[in-house]
Design goal:
By secondary structure, the chain is mainly α. It has a domain of 59 residues. The protein is built from four helices and no strands.
Length: 122
Amino acid sequence: MRKSLITAVVAASLFTLAACGNDDDTNTAASHNMSGMDHGDMSSDDMGGMMTENEMADLESASGAEFDQMFLTMMIEHHEGAIEMAKTEQSEGEFPEAVDMAKEIETTQAEEIQTMQDLLKS
């Protein structure tokens, strides 16, 4: 059961990460190729939860339980960055639909963080 849950979370998160990449279909989640995670000139210091090139390289070279642990830890940080951004949108945003979406993002990302933290403990 635990392995199936981890596999499901990893697969869903990899597809989410792939969606954050560019439109080039050569980068697939299944290949562990993280080059699609290009966010322009933004450094990892510009936005909370963005992994450094070294962290991404470490993740690419990991496998098995080590990969799972690194992946979940990085995704928790990534989700925490999303929550930070969502809170900023809620306090400073002017477009009602975007503010509503930010509220939903904060709720769902917090739930996913809890799930990932539980997986790390098991």
